[in-house]
Amino acid sequence: MSPFPRSRDRTAAWLSERSATSPVHVFALGKASVEMARGALHALSAANVTCAGGIVVAAHKPADADTLPLAVRIGDHPLPDIGSLAAADAIANAIAQVDAGDDVLVLLSGGTTSLCAAPCAELVTLVGHPADAQSQIANAMWSMMAHGMAIHDMNALRRRLLRWGAGRLATALHARAVRHIHVLAISDVIGDDPAVIGSAPCTADPLSHEELLVLCDAHGLRSEFDVTLARALGLSGDGRVRIHTAPPSHPAFAKVTYEVIASNADARQAAAAAAITLGVRNVVVADEALQGDAEEAGVRIAQIALRLAAASTDQSLLIWGGEPTVDMAERIVDDADTDQGDAEAHGGRMQTLALAASLALANASFSNKHARRISILAAGTDGRDGPTDAAGAIVDAFSPLQMHRAGRDPERDMRLLQSYHALNSAGALLRIGPTGTNVMDLVLVLTDASEA
Length: 452
Prior knowledge:
This protein is of the alpha/beta class. The protein is 40% helix and 15% strand. The strands form two sheets. The chain has a six-stranded parallel beta sheet with strand order 3-2-1-4-5-6, sandwiched between helices.
């Protein structure tokens, strides 16, 4: 499911509907930015429309970056650092090249929040230096991820803090008197909400300050944030809010049109089509989005697979999509084994889910012969799961036995969020490298025919 043809075709459709011949600037942001930019530039060239400038902010530098007619900047992911700060400055420079009456094409994909993350002006003023404010943002992001917050909740907070979040890219372009801003987005969030994708660079923040306070208190974040950052968000109790976002009534948003061109549903359907082509007898795509705790999701998926395997002797494939979470803070801090030298979390949500599912299948295999018919692939569509080099893993009921033979204790590894090491010891990790897109995660459960 390459971003190139979708970006090319939807850009061509937008160009055909334009009622102007003004130049177009291309802002491509996120993990799919390079291929999306290629597709958009192809459509612009085919339509003889001038690309007047823009920027590509990506997670990895493409080998042929020099062939792109746009500047390429590499941000940091999953936590922002100096690269993201520089990328945000490069976006500002690209905005400065936009002239009155120009059109802007914004290409968004997963990872945009971190790759372009830099502190908003109010936070820089309060902290005193952009690098120090950047550190506070990175610490806040880590706290939110450690608490296992879903991306909807995280981005509700992150977009307030970021230089280009909560519609600030749109308002900055409006200040340059652009004619129109068209957004093509590849969604990496459940529900495909523009206010969540990429922390909403061209969409107004829908949350009130009171709703933001409720969200912070629900996750116990007031005490987690730096004092200055808490003051900026209005969490300090003095009644003042230092960071403000443009309301939906701001004239910038009247210039924005928004189109989601790919999502997790497309990945699920593509997986189903591929399975049918390969001759899988029965393919079922789950309607329910995969979310919540990753370990619990792994156990639940294994239980569902066991029931369906017992009910049918045919080969089948179950497909789930979504984005579960891992509460790192609670599970590591509270674990009594953290004095054994490897307590630092290593492994992402899909590796956690895969390990939990394999343990559930292994436990069931002693009394349920159907457990040995089941194999599970769990992976991030971007090719990277958590802070690791693996997209996820492929496991079955025998995987924990292989881990034990390799000297690992998979149950302990699960407690300490060491899924990467456990899965690696069994040769179960799936390493495919960056895919150039991001539409959340996929879990595929294959049940062999009983006679296989």
